[in-house]
Amino acid sequence: MSAMTSTTLMQRMETLGLGVMAASLESYLGDPMRKDETLAESLAALVDIEYTARKERSARTRLKLSGMPSIKRIEDFEVSWLKGGLSQAKLRELSSLAFIERRENIMLLGPSGLGKTHLMLSLGHHACMSGYTVYYLSCRDALENLRRASEQNRLKRKIKWFAKPHLLLLDEVGYEPLTPEQAHMLFQLINVRYETGSIIMTSNKPFAKWAELMSDEAVATAMLDRLLHHAHVLSLKGDSYRMKDRLKVGLVNFE
Question: Which pTM does this prediction carry?
Answer without folding.
Answer: 0.79
